[in-house]
Amino acid sequence: MQNLNAIPLSALRAIEAIARTGTLGRAADELGVTAGALSQRLTKAEAALGQALFIREASGLKPTAICVQVAPRLTRAMEDISSVVSQIRVPEDDTLTISVAPIFASRWLIWRIKRFNQKNPSISLRVLPTAEVVDLDHSEVDIGIRVGEDSSIGSEAVKLLDQRVFPVCSPDLALHLHTLDDLRNIPIIRENELLYGWKSWLSDQDLDVPDLQPGPTYADASLCLDAAMTGQGVFMAWETLACDALERGYISSPFARRSRTGATYWFATSQHAARKSSVRKFRKWLEAELDCSVNYWNSAST
Question: CATH fold of 163-261, please?
Answer without folding.
Answer: D-Maltodextrin-Binding Protein; domain 2 (3.40.190)
